[in-house]
Design a protein that fits this description.
Oligomer: heterodimer
Distance between the termini of chain A: 28 Å
CATH superfamily of chain B: Metal-dependent hydrolases
Largest sheet of chain B: 8 strands, parallel
Structural class of chain A: alpha/beta
Shape of chain B: globular
Strand order of the largest sheet of chain B: 8-9-10-11-12-15-16-17
CATH architecture of chain B: Alpha-Beta Barrel
CATH class of chain B: Alpha Beta
Largest sheet of chain A: 5 strands, parallel
CATH superfamily of the largest domain in chain A: Aspartate/ornithine carbamoyltransferase
Strand content of chain A: 5-15%
Number of domains of chain A: 2
Number of strands of chain A: 9
Distance between the termini of chain B: 19 Å
Strand order of the largest sheet of chain A: 7-6-5-8-9
Shape of chain A: globular
Radius of gyration of chain B: 21 Å
CATH topology of chain B: TIM Barrel
Number of helices of chain B: 13
Number of helices of chain A: 11
């Protein structure tokens, strides 16, 4: 079975997941992103690489930040961007996912940026496009269920590389709700593929998925032990609805055990960086003193995110 | 109609026969094996040279989708699929719409099935009204209407007191109860086996304990009530171990496994293949190995197709939203042969699991080619193989995780009560 995101020559056809992507492709994306960070500093923040192309932001689940950064990335590449918040339109009228896709294909879409609450939805779209012989249309997964959020994983790698220069000597700790996190999965695949020697996950057993160690990570339940000598601390968002399903007793108890405070951060290396995919729950997974403190690189992550998404879009479009 | 089946390799597991023997059929029954009865003049001679002749297959779980789900499949389409797959007897679960909880529905189904003129259909009646797990059905009435057992299909009884009383009531009349083991809470959200694959794909996992906790409940209630229990479509090594131990302690329990779980594991979900969305979920590789061994050793009594036609609209959605189920009637024989070849089993052993052993679970005198038995026969070409494609399937259900695979064993002819119900190319 061919990996549906690669073309016949092993090149990137879609970006659906980091799982299984070779290190060369990951590095190529990071390398290509670097010059795009400079575009943002120009007076005219535009390149003509996607001029005349139509990029559809297909969001079946609400999002502000991810959708906005994709929109900015596409616009800086001179693409025409169409935003569809389908959570509030077609599917509520009974239209199926693939019907929606077919309609947009008929509008000469060149690229779909897809967010969906169900794991695998962008794969379904990519497989459908292949079956319809519409291989010139590219799909970027902007987050599917608990499965993957590859551009977030890549922008996190870009951030790490920016601050730490290399991957092969790092200890990276991912903290919090790994079970429900597509971000964590993409981070783990990216970190292991790029050669990080020690990737750790830290959380209570209710928020760590089964056999997570088989993805190449060390599992910690004690946050202080897990943070010891870490170079990079990647916090995950804890959604409030997790309190309902008997996964956690209260936000307060979670913060006590797994919230990142200045005190706990002292166990990491003195030059550790702290990352968060946003939006943050201050006082739940991260203390404001840390979020706004000298170790945090949370806002640069957002800035780099635009450059990484520009790199992915231009690579897929062959520009 | 008198039929002479000539020169075939006869495999009759019930009688331990694997030899070249002719079969003589008259008046819907096996008239003789080997030599023709005195004065036998055939109306039709079937040349079975190079073919294997075995009892018609008995499938312990095939959903025909009527009444209520005619857009997924109809009785006619699925009975034709059964005949094309060599299946001459099948049991159908009660999860139709409405469920099989009233004698009138069962009588209508039996009547329609007879009218369609193919396989013998044995409905499994609903154990509780509407499968809701609250009130008992009129089991004696349903039995008179044709139900051979009672069950809940894939809807567990949540209230264990209701379950105990249902088993007591069934045991009163000696009715067998067929249950699929799934804890209503642990089995609620998971769409894939809780393990590395589900973690990798970000799919909500269903732990093995969803099955074993339910089996533990069922086995203890079976012991207390004395009901004859059959656990359908087991999925894990742990489930099998519990059933074997229960049997050793004197509980009357049988079980079966589906063709899907015999051949596939959660790794076969691949890139979110919705055709691998099944209930119970495909388990780990070591579970599959245990099930394959268990079926070979007879610890698992029978192999079923778990035939569940699902329309394309319900499958062309993301994995977790896809309706569970796969078509299977036409794959029962090929996948039995594939398993037998891979496990180096004799055909006598392998075919027993889909003929006489399955008949024993059903409690019917079928699945044998003894003289006097109903002339239900399957003739297949052991050398013939075919690629599973949508076009190759007669069933209205075209979705199966085996699409694209090359499988052995092409059915050439199917006889039901001495009538030719299917002949290849016709």
């Amino acid at each position: 079975m061919r990996n549906p995101q690669l073309d016949k020559n092993g090149g990137l056809q879609h970006l659906l997941t980091i799982d299984g992507l070779p290190r060369e492709i990951l590095n190529a994306i990071l390398d290509n992103a670097a010059p795009f960070t400079e575009v943002a500093e120009r007076e005219v923040k535009k390149l003509p690489l996607l001029r005349g192309k139509s990029v559809f932001n297909l969001f079946f689940e609400s999002s502000t930040r991810t959708r906005t950064t994709f929109e900015i990335a596409a616009k800086r590449l001179s693409a025409d961007v169409i935003n569809l918040n389908i959570g509030t339109s077609s599917t509520s009228k009974g239209e199926t996912l693939l019907d929606t896709v077919d309609n947009l294909c008929a509008m000469q879409a060149d690229m779909f940026v897809v967010r969906h609450a169900s794991s695998g939805a962008p794969f379904l779209i990519a497989q459908h496009l292949a079956a319809m012989k519409l291989e010139h249309i590219h799909v970027i997964n902007a987050g599917d269920g608990r499965h993957a959020h590859p551009t977030q994983g890549l922008l996190d790698m870009y951030t790490i590389r920016h601050y730490k220069q290399r991957f092969d000597n790092l200890v990276v700790a991912i903290v919090g709700d790994v079970l429900h996190s597509r971000v964590a999965r993409s981070q783990i695949h990216a970190l292991t593929a790029l050669g990080v020697p020690e990737v750790r996950v830290i959380g209570p057993k209710t928020l760590l998925p089964s056999d997570i160690d088989k993805l190449g990570v060390r599992v910690f339940h004690d946050m202080r032990a897990g943070l010891k000598d870490a170079d990079v601390v990647m916090m995950l968002r804890l959604q409030n609805e997790r309190m309902k399903g008997a996964l956690l007793p209260s936000p307060q108890e979670f913060f006590k055990s797994y919230g990142l405070t200045a005190d706990k951060l002292q166990h990491a290396r003195p030059d550790a960086i702290v990352m968060h995919p946003g939006p943050m729950n201050r006082g739940v997974e991260i203390d404001s003193a840390v979020a706004d403190g000298p170790h945090a690189v949370i806002l640069p992550q957002v800035t780099f995110g635009i450059a990484v998404r520009m790199a992915v879009m231009s690579m897929l479009a062959g520009a | 109609m008198k039929i002479h089946i000539r020169n075939g390799r006869l495999i009759d597991p019930a009688n331990g026969i694997d030899a070249q023997r002719d079969v003589f059929v008259a008046a819907g029954r096996i008239a003789a094996i080997g030599a023709a009865p005195d004065g036998f003049v055939a109306n039709r001679v079937i040349d079975a040279t190079g073919l294997t002749v075995c009892p018609g297959l008995i499938d312990l779980s095939a959903r025909l989708r009527e009444p209520g789900f005619e857009y997924k499949a109809t009785l006619e389409s699925e009975m034709a699929a059964a005949a094309g797959g060599g299946v001459t007897t099948l049991a159908c679960p009660p999860d139709t719409d409405p469920p099989l909880d009233e004698p009138g529905l069962v009588e209508m189904l039996k009547h329609r099935a007879r009218h369609a003129g193919f396989a013998h259909v044995f409905p499994i009646g609903a154990l509780t009204v509407g499968l809701a797990g609250e009130r008992l059905t009129e089991m004696a009435e349903l039995h008179d209407a044709g139900c051979i057992a009672f069950g809940q299909a894939s809807t567990p009884v949540v209230d264990t007191q209701v379950l105990m009383r249902a088993l007591q009531y069934a045991a009163t009349f000696g009715f067998p109860v067929w249950l699929q083991a799934q804890d209503p809470f642990l089995g609620k959200d998971g769409v894939a086996h809780d393990g590395e694959m589900a973690t990798r794909l970000g799919l909500p996992g269903q732990p093995v304990s969803a099955e074993t906790i339910a089996i533990s409940t069922i086995l203890q209630l079976a012991r207390d009530t004395g009901v004859r229990i059959h656990i359908t479509r087991i999925s894990s090594a742990a489930a099998l171990d519990m059933i074997v131990a229960a049997r050793a302690s004197g509980i009357a329990v049988t079980c079966d496994v589906s063709i899907n779980h015999l051949h596939l594991s959660d790794a076969d979900i691949g890139f979110f293949n919705p055709n691998a969305r099944l209930v119970p979920p495909l388990r780990a590789g070591h579970d599959r190995e245990a099930l394959r061994r268990g079926l070979a050793e007879g610890a698992i009594n029978a192999l079923c197709s778990d035939h569940t036609p699902v329309d394309d609209d319900a499958k062309q959605v993301p994995f977790g939203e896809a309706e569970p189920g796969a078509t299977g009637l036409e794959l029962l024989l090929p996948l039995t042969l594939k398993w037998a070849a891979e496990m180096r089993l004799s055909l006598l052993t392998a075919l027993a699991r889909i003929t006489c052993d399955a008949a024993r679970v059903l409690g019917i005198p079928s699945g044998t080619l003894s003289a006097g038995a109903a002339a239900d026969l399957c003739l297949y070409d052991p050398q013939g193989s075919f690629t599973v494609t949508r076009e190759s399937l007669r069933s209205q259900g075209k979705n199966t995780p085996f699409l694209g695979q090359v499988l052995p064993g092409r059915v050439q002819a199917t006889l039901i009560d001495g009538h030719i119900a299917f002949e290849n190319g016709r």
